[in-house]
Amino acid sequence: MKIASLAEVSDKAIIVLVKQRVLGCEWDDETGEVIGVLQYGYDGEHFMALDLKTLTWIAPKLQSFTTKLRWDSEKARIRYNENYLTEICPVWLKKYVTLAKSSLMRTALVTNSLYSQIQSEIQLREEETKHN
């Protein structure tokens, strides 16, 4: 059923709810420390976050406590998230950082090379103008 048809059927206002998920990791390339992040939000408010040290969910609001108890009992899901956040995510993050650095270096080299060529052209034209 489309939203438009729901609006036609119901005389009540349609309410839009927003669910957010933050999933990823941070990597300190100097210390090698990796911090995984998995958080859920609801309409801009914190709802639930995974604590990787205790492998339990943190429920910052009373409304999320029932969900916390259910999610804490899902050990396979917690282990999957732990593996993703501590093993898989850091590997991909390091690959992307390496690719980005090499891409930026390549761009800088091309830019410097192009700049040098333009400078040479300008100098040649200035010398030709002096001689003519």
UniProtKB/TrEMBL annotation:
GO terms for biological process: immune response. It comes from Collichthys lucidus (Big head croaker). Residues 19-103 form the MHC class I-like antigen recognition-like domain. Keywords: Glycoprotein. It holds the Pfam family MHC_I. The keyword GTP-binding does not apply. This is I-related gene protein MHC class. GO terms for cellular component: external side of plasma membrane; extracellular space.
